[in-house]
Batch of 3 targets.
Target 1
Amino acid sequence: MKKDLYILGIETSCDETAVAIIKNGTEIVANVVASQIESHKRFGGVVPEIASRHHVEQMTITLEEALSQSKVTLDDIDAITVTEGPGLVGALLVGVNAAKALAFASGKPLVGVHHIAGHIYANRLIKEMEFPLLSLVVSGGHTELVLMEEHGSFKVIGETRDDAAGEAYDKVARTLNLPYPGGPHIDRLAHEGQPTIDLPRAWLEEGSYDFSFSGLKSAVINTLHNAEQKGKQIEPENLAASFQESVIDVLVTKTVKAAKQYKVKQVLVAGGVAANKGLRARLEQEFEGILDIELIIPPLALCTDNAAMIAAAGTVLYEKGKRSDLSMNANPGLDLEMQ
């Protein structure tokens, strides 16, 4: 019988310290996440130095908890995988150095993983991938359409030219005096209001799958400021609904068009903004009538940063023979297509 493959994953790219263990690339054995949201909330965003210090404090605790939950030991682990980049350099360094120390001490292979590859592979923990497939990646720092012809192969066919969708959500939320992180609060408000305010949609040039949300963010801010100068009241629920509809229109329209053009079998949704209820509902509605394309959206716990996704992506890289040595460093500018 084939031996079970156990891969340990470490994720510290932003403000979650996470360690997970995955069995055979698809089964979560342990998935521990130590969140820092409460620490950053009063600043209205992630403070890199504070994030790094919290990672140092939580790394060993999180690792021990994951091993305890999994009922396996380091001897059972086949490889150590870790987010190499992109992300906050100080935060990444904590995870990378922890992984290197663990690999050195245990004699296990080390595999560096791209953070976005991890988000995409979170979907494999739900359903086996079928190629070719298209992934819509929507997170705080990334908005991309990624085409995959096989495991471990990534072709970016569309990306953000300025603000990512999640970044725009956070900035609009700040303008509306909503707490950090802003995305869930905008989503909740949007469901209480109506899209009564005309806001722009950046379609860009014909045939482009790139995204741009900077103009939309500015339009929201200008709408609020103009109303204040005229002494008019804008209902935040309606502004949130109008903003969210604009974002979702562009994301979904381009995703559907690309999925049809590239004749994909599956569309995967990945990243923190994949937890947005409005986006999930609209995608399900649009793809319901496209019988030959399967839509896969991970549960909320696998949309936000976690280490199970890193171990899932790392499993594929390990099986393809990728190895990192102890000279591996944090790489905030790591290219997905070079993964």
Target 2
Amino acid sequence: MTTPKIESELPEEIGTAAEAVPETRGEWFVVHTYSGYENKIKVDLAKRVESMNMQDKIFDVLIPEEKEVEYKGGKRKVTSKRVFPGYVLVNMIMSEDSWYVVRHTPGVTGFVGSGSKPIPLREDEINKILRQMGLIESKPKFIDIEIGENIRVRTGPFANFEGVVKELLPDRGKVRVNISMFGRETPVELDYEQIEKL
């Protein structure tokens, strides 16, 4: 007997960190969990979906995270930060059976919704979360700044230095700035997040 393609892919999709854009087959629901148990619930739910043959009703589980860039000791460090601690997103077709499987997974405290009826996320809400996670294309952040304006560097190795904007690179979310160091103009390329207008 051949197993449907969805069966063989489901545990891998649910068990790994979100690397690709999840395919939406049902609706996205927000599930409340014990804080700190999000990864365990993701793995446990994948096992329950497989053991209870719910691959045709429960498709994907996401833990909303975003990449955070920190600058420590002049070095750039990228870390993942939970956007909604204590919550996971489940893509599923709501039925009595699928509700039961998710609701009775150890660590799940319930669905988010009014009363006892879970309410799915609207398309714009899930798209905003997926954009924030970097799973779907987002437009680079826009900063209201012009060439020739004075800025202060907020983070990174040039923190607290002031400079003048020489070039805008909106497609990359960066600016080229001349910073005054040791009496000389030094050109540097900075992310929008690293600067503020004076």
Target 3
Amino acid sequence: MYQYFLKRIFFLLAPEKAHSFTLKLFRLTLGIPLINSLFKQRYSFEHPALKRELFGLEFPNPVGLAAGFDKDGKYMDLMGSLGFGFLEIGTITPKAQIGNPQPRLFRLPSDNALINRMGFNNEGVETMVARLKKYNRKTQIIIGGNIGKNKNTPNQEAVNDYALCFEALYPYVDYFVVNVSSPNTPGLRDLQEKEPLTALLSHLQDLNAQKKHRKPILLKIAPDLTDSQLDDILEIAQQTSLAGIIATNTTIDRSMLSTDDSKVEAIGAGGLSGQPLKERATEVIRYLSEKTKGELPIIGVGGIASAEDALEKLEAGASLVQIYTGLIYSGPLLIKKINKAILSLKN
């Protein structure tokens, strides 16, 4: 139904409008108890063998929703109905910001890809906290908080933005992701350099140590890092006792696209996600896993559009996987297909 009917309708709309319309439509539809029950029967897939224990948390299954899809945590109930084992909300910044001018989200259908330059558009951490206070977790789904800095905050003061988000969200999320790898906030990726990143993560871990129960802190990295830079990331991860790495964010590389160059140039700057990112994301996962002998947990994300793609990430060394663009192109049954494929490996 999604591939042959709904997707065609949604793709008639501008991407950002389609995203908002789709989520609102599903929320309205799933508000009807009978439809909600039928929907869960169709899309949810549970089995004890799918559970994963990682950095002190028990995940109902290893398939998660990547950050950026539900920036403000408005659709956590809906996303939970799709059968995800964990949801990552955000990226969240201290102050609300509108992000970059529209249009800022573009489809590349021939590549099963998206280009976005959203720019951390979100309603701010206080609004998110208010929403999380009201959120009633009906399942054991895990919630992660992806945090960033405001566009107008200079890099030398960025640590304050991350700390503010950490403190505000601490009581309400199960783990944190430090996002310094989005290409859509000017200068943000400079924070991936060794000195500023070490200082930032060390400060957050100092705050974490003051709590009664430490929360896992993960780092989301860009796929465009060199092996030398990845080695630095691993050194920092060890020094700052990171719980894990999320590999990877979107890429600024366009070399793997089949879409006409003139169309790509007309779109302009932004992070590329989807199928073209698959190979590089897997390479990064494998490199990190081999370097750490599998001892540092990795969440694999980038180009997962099928069960086979997810299994490839797991084989490369990921412990969990996340999807975003694949959900748009392949539809919500993708989650169930991945979980069934993972289970079949155990049987």
